[in-house]
Amino acid sequence: MSSIYGYVRVSTKDQNEGRQMIAMEEMGVPKENIYMDKLSGKDFNRPEYKKLIRRIKENDTIFIKSIDRLGRNYEEIIEQWRIITKEKRADIVVIDMPLLDTRRGKDLMGTFLADIVLALLSYVAENERKNIKQRQREGIDAAKARGVKFGRPAEELPTNFREVYQRWATQDISLTTAAKLLNMPVSTFRYRAKVYKNATF
After folding, report:
1. Which domain covers residue 192, as residue numbers?
2. What is the per-residue pLDDT across 154-177, written as a single tens digit (0 to 9) for each?
3. Which of 30, 106, 165, 199 has minimal CB crowding within 10 Å?
């Protein structure tokens, strides 16, 4: 007897899986048959996904909300699709894309069309991820060009930093002594001294 399963993935533990869970419920997937990973889609080192793949058998059906829930790497999505449909001989239903429903069109033409659509959508999903990263990079570069600072704000220098720095720079005191006078680790003083020097010369 065939069974139906659902696979849900969110990229981080902070993201909400609510929409995907509602979709699974609407498809009639039993809660005990829903597998969920809260991990990045960049690889397939995902425990719940692996459990699902081990469990499914011929003629079972896996529901996913969208094609990028399988992953965001073009080659990997294609490979997982092959494993599920060819090796396991199970079906996949992509809820957001009715054309990607291997329960339909079991003939050669239906399979051929599904494979074409899958390849196209997988490519689009990966390309969009690359475009998002590129836009983020361009946005950060543009913000930096406008003078926007990223990261934690630098701590204020101690009031006696300039005096201690000058004594250290003229070799009046050692690096260790300078750090002690400023109540900071040697590595921190070395870094702050370098930044101070670059800012004043």
Report:
1. 161-200
2. 567 888 999 999 999 999 999 999
3. 199
- Picking from 21-35, 101-115, 182-196, which range would have the lowest pLDDT averaged per residue? 101-115
Residues 21 and 72 in one domain: yes
Query: For residue 66, is it within any domain?
Result: yes
- Is residue 155 a part of any domain in this protein? no
3-state class (DSSP) for residue 1: coil
Q: Is residue 142 part of a domain?
A: no
**Residues facing 7 on adjacent strands:** 35, 64
Residue 146 lies in a domain: no
Bridge partners, residue 63, by sequence: 6, 93
Same domain, 166 and 126: no
Q: Which of 2, 3, 11, 40 is catalytic?
A: 11
Neighbour-count burial of 189, counting CB atoms closer than 10 A to its CB (0-12 exposed, 13-18 middle, 19+ buried) = buried
Tell me, yes or no, if 11 is annotated catalytic.
Answer: yes
d(CA 108, CA 116): 12
pLDDT of 110 over the 70 cut: no
Based on the domain organization, do 13 and 88 belong to the same domain? yes
Listed in sequence order, the residues at least 6 apart from 159 whose beta carbon sits closer than 8 Å to its beta carbon are none
- Looking at the structure of the chain, the number of domains it has is 2
